[in-house]
Every structure is written in C-alpha cells, then in structure tokens.
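Sample intake sheet
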Amino acid sequence: MNLRFLWPMLLIGSLASARAAEPTFERVIGPEVPTGPYKHPACMAELDNGDLYLVYYGGADEYATDTSVYGLRRRSGETKWSAPVPIAHDPFRSVGNGVIWQAPDGLVWLFYVVRYGETWSTSRIQFKVSRDRAATWSDASVLSMAEGDMVRGRPIVLNNGDYLLPIYHETGYDPEKVGADSTSLFLRFDPRQRVWTRMGAIRSANGNIQPAVAQLDDGRLVAYCRRGGDYDPKTIGHIVRSESRDGGRTWSPGTDSAFPNPNAAVDFLKLRSGRLFLVYNDSMTGRTPLTVALSSDQDRTWPSRRNLREGQDDFAYPIAFQARDGRIHVVYTSRHRTVVNHAVIDENWILEGR
C-alpha cells in the first residue's frame, strides 16, 4: 500500500477515536414517586466513597405547607437509585431549596430553606450535618434568622481553606416578582474556629439572587447571579455579574453580563483544568435551551458553547459539580418541576462545540 495514502487514513481514524463522548442523560425520578408531584430544585454531590447523593424538596406544589427535603443515593458502581426519604421537615412551616455538599474533612452539610409566611421573602436558612456520609443527620440548626435569606448553591473552598457559601436575600413578598433591592450575599466559614461570618452584598439595578461563585486566584472571585424582576418575556434580561478582590468580603456593583437570563437559576464553577464552566438557559423568555459554556481565559471570553437540552420543555435550576474522574455532572428539573434529571458531560465535548 502507498504510505502517502495510509498516513492520512490513520490520522483521520485517530482523530475520530479521540472525539469526546456524548453526554449521558438519566431521568432520576418523576411525579410518580409518592412524595408529592413537585420536585424542585435538585442538588447532587459525589461523596468520598464514590456514592452519588441527591436532594430535592417535594410536596403538592411550590407553596404547599407540607413539604420536606428528600434524599436518595446511588451507590458507587451501581445504576439504581434508592427510594427518597425525608431528611428535613418542619411540622409547622414549609421547607425548600436543599443543598448537599461534602467538605474536605468528610463532614456532609445539608443547607435548606424554611418559609415562615406566604412567600419566599419570609424565609430563613437552616442546616444539618452528617458524619456518616448522609446515612444519619444531626438535629436542625439555624444558619441565618434574617427574614428573606435563602440558599441555592453549594459552597466553594477558598485557597486559604475557608468555605464560602453563596446565599441571597429576597424581598418583595410577591410570588411573581423578585424585589429590586434583592441581593446576593455570602457566608464565610472558618473550619478552624467553626464560625460563620456574613459577607458583603451584590447590588444591581433590578435586584439579583442565587449567586454562583468561583475563585480565579487568591483574592479575585467572580459571581454570576440570577436577575431580579418579574417573569414576563423581556429583551433586556441578563445574568448579573460581579467581582470581589478581597476574598468575598466586598463586591462590585452587579452589571449585566453577555448571557441572557429569563429570571432563572444558573451555575458556575472552576474546573480542575483551570477553565470556567457556566450552565444557564440561553434565553430571555423561557427555560429552554439549557446551555453549557467554557472560558479558557479567566472569564474574558466564552467561545465554547453547546446546548445540553433543547425543545419545548422547561430545563430549570441546573446545578453542577466536577467528579473525581473529571466528568461534569449537571442536575436539573423539567416537566414543570416534576422530574429530576441527571446529565454527565465530558469537558472536551463542550470544547468541540466551538
């Protein structure tokens, strides 16, 4: 065989085999599970033994009073999820927005919201901890009693070992509108002193909530936040962006980023490759498509973007983490907040979407 023709064929075959794997998708649970049809939002963590642990809050609907945060597990090496069990409940108030996270010391934290009145603007933040990989839980403790404080995203570990938990303060007492003075905030935890400290707010013209944060270097942090306002279709709705130069103590005024936002949650994290990852709804009018993007230059440009899910559905409240094997896991809800979904993505698959 003529080698001039053989080498191109080998090269093409090598490039084809090197292509990144396509994302995988899993429907974890839906309205048929007897915890009430409403299941939203969901959050997942990989535990240090390889198990995946997922939480969501469930009940009859978003504003039902008889709700619980539920937990379920997929053991390492298995494909089947356990049945959901209630892990946080209040006999007199509604609970919501469960966040699961395992700290570097092995302690598993569950943060969640307790709603004291008719709207989320009356909420407070509570937490529980587990010392046995979410098998059993402590009693509930109060993290913040400030009316309107809520949680949605997982903490990050700062370069000095402190934990930074993104929270937000929602105002307005209106189920159809986020108040213009709503702000993203942060709680910083010193694991040596075991003390939480409240950090500065992100203020923006129309309000912002549900920050997702990443540390770019020792002092600089960037947060992307859900916009405030109502849910009417707009042509001026964007994800709100802010920076901190002092480890999260103070933040620049929130400004509109280049990314659209239909008043919906986003997630943002720094990958082990050094790239930044963003998952969001690439629309100002609806929660579809669900798009993932990468920045390789410290948040200056985002040339690699791909739609993870698209079509006539709602793909809402994504939350992401990078597993030990390097793959990116994204959990989100659909079918009007009744189905919990789980996607696994190869970082290179996003890069191939340039």
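Comment: Helices lie at 3-17, 347-351. The longest helix spans residues 3-17.
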